[in-house]
Design a protein that fits this description.
This protein is of the alpha+beta class. The chain has two domains: 10-86, Glutaredoxin, CATH 3.40.30.10; 90-213, Up-down Bundle (Glutathione S-transferase Yfyf (Class Pi), Chain A, domain 2). The protein is 47% helix and 8% strand. It has seven helices and four strands, in the order βαβαββααααα. It has a four-stranded mixed beta sheet, covered by helices on one side. A hairpin with a 2-residue loop joins strand 3 (63-66) and strand 4. It is globular and about 45 Å long. The structure holds glutathione.
Amino acid sequence: MTAARPSRPIRLHGFALSGHCHRVELFLRLLDLPFEVVPVDLARGEQRRPEFLALNAFGQVPVIDDDGVVVADSNAILVYLALRYAAPSWLPRDPQGAAAVQRWLSVAAGPLAFGAARARIVQLFKLTEDAQPAIDRAHALYRQVEGILDVQGAAWLVGDAPTIADIALYTYTKHAPEGNVALDDYPKLRDWLERVESLPGFAPMQASRIGLAA
Ligand SMILES: N[C@@H](CCC(=O)N[C@@H](CS)C(=O)NCC(=O)O)C(=O)O
């Protein structure tokens, strides 16, 4: 059976330096779906304009508009795209597989967002906040993920094929050094990053010369 295709390009309201947005863009590219980016300038506060708040009352990117179907929140968008346009392997339908993927989406919205992603934001926007708690949270998470990848002996976070769990965790992990989170101690994690990068259609988020990447 041929996978469904959008009848017109999906509009991705996003910001080039947002890992949450890259998460969505990466999955669109891996699925080879047509899309166009509608830039939202966070520095100028465009996410708080009424037109944008009508799309996402939380005032955050990413948001997609798929021919009138508006979906906000990066992980929600991954779920939508997987169910609508992807092979079932990207989001298993069996209870155990679906739960295993959801577990990682929760990690992406929790420890990843408040760890590596936050530490990077402090550098990116030169915030005065102390980044150390976020850096510590990032290392706590990566020690756990390293152990899980080691014990599972698996190539991917869930099962034996890439899922949206891998997509959700990829970008902020890859860019963690920009937030002064070194990945040297996590060889299994770095191998996993490379596996994601080898997927057909992969394109990186633009690098920022900040933190350990300066
Ligand atoms: N849970 C949301 C978080 C998205 C998020 O934090 N977006 C940031 C950019 S990375 C944003 O729009 N920030 C602007 C603001 O909060 O004013 C998701 O997964 O999409």
